[in-house]
Amino acid sequence: MRSPLDQIWLRAGLRDHVIGYDETRQWPKDKRERIFALGILRRREDAEAVQCDACGEPHTEEVIYPGDDGADGLISCPRLGVVRVPRERRQQWEVVAAGLNERAGFGVEISPAYCDVILRRLQESLKLTPVHAVTGEPFQSNP
Ligand SMILES: [Zn+2]
Questions:
Q1: What angle do CA 21, 24, 26 make, to 5 degrees?
Q2: CA 50–ligand 1 middle distance (angstroms)
Q3: What confidence score (pLDDT) does residue 2 get?
Q4: How much of the chain, in percent, has pLDDT values that exceed 90?
Q5: What distance in angstroms lies between residue 4's CA and the mean position of ligand 1's atoms?
Q6: Considering its fold, how many domains does the chain have in total?
Q7: What is the Å distance from ligand 1's center to 84 Cα?
């Protein structure tokens, strides 16, 4: 299984990608917390439909809310009937990354110092060692 960060980078290259709540819950808790702390995911509008997690069959159903009291939503499962869906399961995010918004790439070119900041944050937050693409040498950020 790919690491959560690998999954995020792969997704960042796709237009109109989203990362759903259920997917983020499969990430190890410490990694999930670090990824959200990095601010590389931006909340999108909640999903209209979620995958049923009650019957074991892969099917996606629209979530309905019988009242407006903040209670859980409901989906209709062909096998089990009405299934409760906690509100947070509709949450979804998009990756805010260079390839997606076409801004960070220019920023790096204009200001190498900003590149240092990004790499230092990645090193500290994710315990990654950035490697220079041409030389293969570990990157030494300037403090
Ligand atoms: Zn079902």
A1: 115
A2: 10
A3: 77
A4: 38
A5: 26
A6: 3
A7: 11
